[in-house]
Amino acid sequence: MTWLEIIAPIVGLLVNVLIQTTSFQYIRGLGLFKSIVLGFIAGFLTVLILEFYRYFDFPVMEYEFFYILCVNLITYILLGYCYWAYINLGETSLRIRILREMYETQKALPIEKLFSIYNPDNMFEIRMSRLLKYNQIVCKNDRYFIGKSILLFIAKAIVVIKLIIIGKKSEFD
Amino acid sequence: MKILCYGIVLYSLAFIIHLVIWKVRIPKNQTKALLQIFLITIITCFSIMLNLPSSFSLFGIPILHTFSEYLHVSIFYISMMLAYVVFYSAIEADSPSLEIIRLIDSTGKSGAKKEDLRKIFVAMPFLESRIGSLIDDKLVCEVDGKYLPTKRGIILLHIISFYRYLFSMQKGG
Q1: B24 interfacial to chain A (CB closer than 8 Å)
Q2: Do B15 and B68 lie in a common domain?
Q3: Which of B63, B92, B121 is the last residue of a domain?
Q4: Domain layout of chain A by residue ranges
Q5: C-alpha angle B69/B75/B76, rounded to 5°?
Q6: Closest residue by Cα to residue A78 from B77, B10, B90
Q7: A39-70: pLDDT as tens digits
Q8: H helices of chain A, where?
Q9: The dihedral of CA A88, A90, A96, A97: what is its sign?
């Protein structure tokens, strides 16, 4: 076993971060999502190139090469997922936004103040607008229906996983 | 083959231990408990493996021998552990957007009225739940009915916000 095949997913992740951050910073109009995809693809290709380079440089049995390639690609994809979650955490996590609000105001906040900032009505409106914008829901004659089925599939899958792991459908059950 | 098998076997073992513990009692600080379970499992298993005879095999697959094999399995295992911990946040706490999707789906072909959705959504205590989990994780403390971030909370916020500060991103919804 060579060091190259051990560190390949970590090198892939570093390339991912480097390409994502520089492309987001310097390519005009690219946007966050496209820069994340670009970084991910660059890192993925890096892992593949390193794996094939090592295979031709230090040949092993083909099946052994295949298993190591699987391990390293899975490792890279999972690390890439963690990086994507890290980028999105400050953006989408309600917990982090509440924490930031408390920190930025530099004083202790009563629950009433937090309610005025994170008003449930506002939260509802923001989410409805976002779901409509991305066609996840559609409005016909003042009634709302499921649009694209991807989020519904994710919601159903998460309910099944919740039932298996925590034994209930919702944290509020 | 060895790396893939041992990585999956160790991860599966930790996952089963996690499921058994969760069936008995769900820990207060779930993320910390998950990390402890996964780390204790790999450390214990590696300690056992190091003391086994080198001729030992698991399901016909020889035991790990070299430092590089242990390191490779560790990287594979840690990437799976981190990805699961990130994914677990979606299991632990309900997503407001996915809850809206579920509510709309539950109305079937008749669709949902916005006001009906709003009434149910507003009744869901998302804010209280997030503040509760911030307190459980010792990221926020309550003083005289007001909330303050702790030192740990501020450190976490700086780590997560680093990316945002780097690119001066806007606040999420």
Answers
A1: no
A2: yes
A3: B92
A4: 3-94, 119-173
A5: 90
A6: B77
A7: 999 999 999 999 999 888 877 788 888 999 99
A8: 3-26, 32-57, 62-92, 94-105, 111-117, 120-133, 150-165
A9: negative
Out of A67, A94, A128, the one facing B126 most closely (by C-beta) is: A94
Question: Which of B30, B60, B92 is a domain's end point?
Answer: B92
Q: In a mutagenesis test of the B interface, which of A64, A67, A69, A95 is the best target, namely the one with the most B β-carbons within 10 Å?
A: A95
- φ, ψ at A137 (rounded to 5°): -130, 155
Per-residue pLDDT of A5-18, as tens digits, reads 899 999 999 999 99
What's the token pair of residue B162?
């680093």
The total number of structural domains that make up chain B: 2
Its pTM stands at 0.87
Between the CA of residue A101 and those of A115, B117, B127, what are the distances in Å?
A: 12, 27, 13
- Residue whose tokens read 């991305």: A134
Same domain, B45 and B66: yes
